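Late entry, evening session. Most of the bench is empty. Finally got around to the prediction I had been postponing all week. Sequence below, unchanged from the version circulated by S.P.
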Amino acid sequence: MELVRDVQAGKKPFKRAYVGIFLWFTGKAVQAAARSDEQVKREFDALPDDFAFSMGCLPNGPWMVVGKEEGAVKYLGGNPEGRHQHLRLKIKNLEAAFLILTFQESTAMATVRNRIITDGELPHALAVMRVLDIVEVYLLPRRIAKLAVKRYPRWPLKRKLFGRFAVYTRTLLGF
């Protein structure tokens, strides 16, 4: 006779779908920004030639994997299994990922509140976080981007407009 009944947690399909779509779009946008933005190019040039990183939710995803192949930054899909990764950014659970990716909590605050686990070298993690901040500034309107990044950059209008156009175009068209 069982005294305690096992209760399974809910699947949360909406939150899982939102996080999955956001990570997919962000992975594609990192690839696009690496071709469009000089600062992102410099960050990736400073990383090893076979560098790859993943970002996702514990315990079972969703994930995004981005890496350098033959000198070019590419979105490598949503499955980190079987890939050598220099850096893994793991968000502790789907609820924490939803808070971060709906910009209710900044990445810096999530780190302070111990919602993100970094598995890899600190310089690599900082470079990836700088890249993700730049990509968020390109993808999001100023009001929302200010919630997502620690400091909103003071870029010339030309960089903001042309950069945003290039990143969105390359992300949506896939080149």
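Two things to note before I forget:
The chain has seven helices and five strands.
The radius of gyration is 17 Å.
Will write this up properly tomorrow.
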